[in-house]
Amino acid sequence: MSSINTVLNFTAHKPHVNAESAADASRASAKAGVLHQLPVHSEVAKPLVPKPIVLKISQVAKEYVLGGKQLKVLEGIDLEVRQGEFVSIVGASGCGKSTLLRLIAGLDAGYDGNIVYLGQTVRETDLSRGIVFQEHRLFPWLTVEENILLAFSATDVPKAERKARVKAQIEVVGLSGFEKAYPHQISGGMSQRVAIARALILRPKLLLLDEPFAALDALTRLKLQQELVRLWEQEDLTTILVTHDVEEAVFLGDSVVVMESHPGRIKRIVPVNLPRPHVRADLEFQRIKEDVLQDFV
């Protein structure tokens, strides 16, 4: 209608324009109006395809002999982890969460049930699975650079490539300038970064973290949690974290596996359906955190 009004106003002020030209303009305007009324078909969003399952744990059980008696540590553990997923496992002391992590790492083959990673049953360690413990476990007589280089001891990676990869990994964890420092010359948080760099240097596809920040002060822990998220996104790692800290579990995880004790079992799995990065002050973050905490109070 506005286009027609424009034409009419134009002809009103320009009396020498002939009627045929005005009619042509009117028809063009009407045609444009029809075109504007045609429906615009927006592209239909394709459904997200779930990433493949890379780790499948089925009916896993574990026992120890204590004082001549069988002690059940884990029972009926079922868990699936997809490629690139960050899974947090939270539970009270003695619930078997660290034991489960050791089984996934292949550090203990004495279990019942099945643990299958990338189609292979896990019964021993493998370079595709890296692990970081609560203690950094650095050798005090070796420098930062040498401690990371130690990870190559069982590989045939050429020396030149080793040095290049160590230099790059030190940059990734933010320790450039400390290559020649010894463990006693750096802080606890920096030592844990070295341990993480050592675990990542062989480019594992699965990173296992056994309470890596538990011994650190609160401020350092918060900073390293953010650093871990950055590394996880940058390296596209499938990651499993064991922790006592519910807030840490929710902040880092795509889901939180809640374990109960005696024997260790999975009570439930809580999805963390929040956009990244997770914001601690967000109301939904707080709701999920309080929901998980209810299992322990």
From TrEMBL:
GO terms for molecular function: ATP binding; ATP hydrolysis activity. It comes from the Bacteria. SMART domains: AAA. The keyword Cell membrane applies. It holds the Pfam family ABC_tran. PROSITE patterns: ABC_TRANSPORTER_1, ABC_TRANSPORTER_2. Residues 55-286 form the ABC transporter domain. Gene3D superfamilies: P-loop containing nucleotide triphosphate hydrolases. Keywords: ATP-binding, Cell membrane, Membrane, Nucleotide-binding, Transport. Signal peptide: none annotated. InterPro entries: AAA+_ATPase, ABC_transporter-like_ATP-bd, ABC_transporter-like_CS, ABC_transporter_ATP-bind, P-loop_NTPase. CDD domains: ABC_NrtD_SsuB_transporters. PANTHER family: ALIPHATIC SULFONATES IMPORT ATP-BINDING PROTEIN SSUB, TAURINE IMPORT ATP-BINDING PROTEIN-RELATED. This is Sulfonate ABC transporter ATP-binding protein. The lineage of its organism: Bacteria, Pseudomonadati, Pseudomonadota, Betaproteobacteria, Nitrosomonadales.
